[in-house]
Amino acid sequence: MFNIKISQTIGLVLISATLLIIVGIFMDALKKEISYDDEMFTETGSRNFSVWLKGINIPKSLEHIAYVSQDRIDQWLVDITNASKAYPTFCNTGDDKLDKYEFAAFLTIIGSETEFTYGFPCTHEQGCPDCTHCSYNTNGLQCLTDDKLQYFGRGPVQLSWNYNYADFSQSYFQDDRLVKNPTLLDSNTELCWASAVWFWMERHDYGGWCMPQAGWDQHDTCDAKCPNGPSGCSLSQCSDAHWLPRKNGSCHDAMHSSGSIGQVINIINGGYDCCPTTTYFAGFGHTLRRTEWWATIVVSWGLGLPWSQVDPVPINECPRAVGHINCTPLKENPENCWTCCTEKN
Ligand SMILES: *[C@@H]1O[C@H](CO)[C@@H](O)[C@H](O)[C@H]1NC(C)=O
Ligand SMILES: *[C@@H]1O[C@H](CO)[C@@H](O)[C@H](O)[C@H]1NC(C)=O
Ligand SMILES: *[C@@H]1O[C@H](CO)[C@@H](O)[C@H](O)[C@H]1NC(C)=O
To answer: Whose CA is closest to atom 9 on ligand 3?
Structure first.
């Protein structure tokens, strides 16, 4: 009897516990349904990045976007959300306008680095600008025949150079597997977008001798003999015209602190785009077009454009652009104004 009572009690307890669990699950589901799903804000009150990103409309007028299906764009947004989990402030500081300026800059860089490649920006660089530099390896700039050891551009921001592969590999894998096999980036979507967000969020050294610009054959000599720039250097050919002040910063900080698309351009590709002597300045995908591209996206989102960032571009960060870009036609007709900016002489 006693035993039966015990088992009855146990039974009751078990039934109650089961009920509680079921109610608990139900309440939990209800709570999730009410407070998180498709809400702009997460449980902790911060903005839900994936929901915010889904509300972003990538302007169809953007060059090359016409060749990208909406399905592919939707997939990017999923991949970007996933990659940004490691960097929760990526385009997500809570300052809506600055976050949009930042995302516009990120799109600009993907577009100008990869031309969106029909929706598959996880590809590798197609034409090295200069064969002697195509390995992008500071330990030897010779052209390597082994594709597995080419540190040329890969992925949405075209991660390049052995030291960038090394740093990203350490950050992502805590080892140097991407140095041994950089082609891993070509085949893995997650890794490829992670490299783009990593590059964007981390601080990098930039500036120095203008490189790797084809046609300027003194680069190596200047770099080796005058590591601190032209001042005090006795090599007359290594002049200010080939030098950008050395700095340290991230693209993310550039868009939030100095608010400068020009600084982003300098960090990403200053050797080509900001060098005082660059011949790439007005070419496809370079300084002029990047600036205009960014302005086009920002205007399409109905945000006021900080013209000080566009004309001249930018304050003290991209010397070749300062005073050389004329965006007056874009100012006067901000909608559908493609190739409006021109080079001033
Ligand atoms: C953000 O919203 C999506 C879609 O509703 C949801 O799946 C996700 O769990 C939310 N994320 C956070 C951190 O709340
Ligand atoms: C997101 O990333 C995780 C690893 O960080 C991976 O397991 C998952 O498959 C990814 N999800 C998508 C939708 O790519
Ligand atoms: C630039 O920033 C990175 C990351 O904070 C750091 O590792 C590196 O030493 C910095 N370089 C200089 C020159 O300050």
So the answer is: 205
